[in-house]
Amino acid sequence: MSTLTIRLPDDTAQRLKSLAQSRGLSMNKLVEQLSAHALSAWDTENHFRALAATGDVNKALSVLDRLDAEDRKAPAR
Protein backbone atom coordinates (compact mmCIF):
# COMPACT_ATOMS: atom_id res chain seq x y z
CA MET A 1 0.00 0.00 0.00
CA SER A 2 1.23 3.49 -0.83
CA THR A 3 1.13 6.66 1.20
CA LEU A 4 0.18 9.80 -0.70
CA THR A 5 0.40 13.38 0.51
CA ILE A 6 -1.80 15.89 -1.31
CA ARG A 7 -2.23 19.63 -0.98
CA LEU A 8 -5.78 20.98 -1.03
CA PRO A 9 -7.25 24.38 -0.38
CA ASP A 10 -8.39 24.61 3.25
CA ASP A 11 -12.07 24.91 2.32
CA THR A 12 -11.89 21.82 0.09
CA ALA A 13 -10.17 19.80 2.81
CA GLN A 14 -12.80 20.88 5.34
CA ARG A 15 -15.65 19.97 3.01
CA LEU A 16 -14.10 16.55 2.39
CA LYS A 17 -13.76 16.02 6.15
CA SER A 18 -17.43 16.92 6.57
CA LEU A 19 -18.42 14.55 3.77
CA ALA A 20 -16.39 11.71 5.27
CA GLN A 21 -17.91 12.33 8.69
CA SER A 22 -21.45 12.42 7.29
CA ARG A 23 -20.84 9.02 5.67
CA GLY A 24 -19.20 7.57 8.75
CA LEU A 25 -15.88 7.16 6.94
CA SER A 26 -12.31 8.11 7.60
CA MET A 27 -10.74 10.63 5.24
CA ASN A 28 -8.55 7.82 3.95
CA LYS A 29 -11.54 5.61 3.12
CA LEU A 30 -13.41 8.50 1.50
CA VAL A 31 -10.48 9.36 -0.76
CA GLU A 32 -10.10 5.65 -1.58
CA GLN A 33 -13.78 5.45 -2.61
CA LEU A 34 -13.65 8.69 -4.62
CA SER A 35 -10.50 7.49 -6.37
CA ALA A 36 -12.10 4.14 -7.24
CA HIS A 37 -15.11 5.98 -8.66
CA ALA A 38 -12.93 8.27 -10.78
CA LEU A 39 -10.88 5.34 -12.08
CA SER A 40 -14.01 3.39 -12.93
CA ALA A 41 -15.35 6.33 -14.95
CA TRP A 42 -12.00 6.66 -16.73
CA ASP A 43 -11.89 2.93 -17.51
CA THR A 44 -15.44 3.09 -18.89
CA GLU A 45 -14.59 6.08 -21.07
CA ASN A 46 -11.50 4.33 -22.43
CA HIS A 47 -13.51 1.17 -23.09
CA PHE A 48 -16.10 3.07 -25.12
CA ARG A 49 -13.42 5.02 -26.97
CA ALA A 50 -11.78 1.73 -27.96
CA LEU A 51 -15.12 0.34 -29.13
CA ALA A 52 -15.84 3.51 -31.08
CA ALA A 53 -12.45 3.35 -32.79
CA THR A 54 -13.21 -0.11 -34.14
CA GLY A 55 -16.90 0.47 -34.83
CA ASP A 56 -18.78 0.88 -38.09
CA VAL A 57 -20.47 4.30 -38.15
CA ASN A 58 -23.00 3.33 -40.82
CA LYS A 59 -24.00 0.19 -38.91
CA ALA A 60 -24.39 2.21 -35.70
CA LEU A 61 -26.55 4.81 -37.47
CA SER A 62 -28.66 2.01 -38.92
CA VAL A 63 -29.30 0.64 -35.43
CA LEU A 64 -30.29 4.12 -34.21
CA ASP A 65 -32.64 4.54 -37.19
CA ARG A 66 -34.34 1.23 -36.32
CA LEU A 67 -34.71 2.30 -32.70
CA ASP A 68 -36.19 5.64 -33.77
CA ALA A 69 -38.67 3.84 -36.02
CA GLU A 70 -39.73 1.60 -33.12
CA ASP A 71 -40.18 4.65 -30.89
CA ARG A 72 -42.43 6.28 -33.49
CA LYS A 73 -44.58 3.12 -33.64
CA ALA A 74 -44.93 2.82 -29.86
CA PRO A 75 -48.05 4.32 -28.28
CA ALA A 76 -47.53 7.63 -26.47
CA ARG A 77 -47.11 7.34 -22.72
Automatic annotation (TrEMBL):
The GO annotation for biological process reads: regulation of DNA-templated transcription
InterPro entries xrefs: CopG, Ribbon_hlx_hlx
| Limits of the Ribbon-helix-helix protein CopG domain | 4-34
**Matches recorded under Pfam families:** RHH_1
Kindly provide the name given to this protein in its UniProt entry. Answer: Toxin-antitoxin system HicB family antitoxin
Q: What's the source species for this entry?
A: Rhodoferax lacus
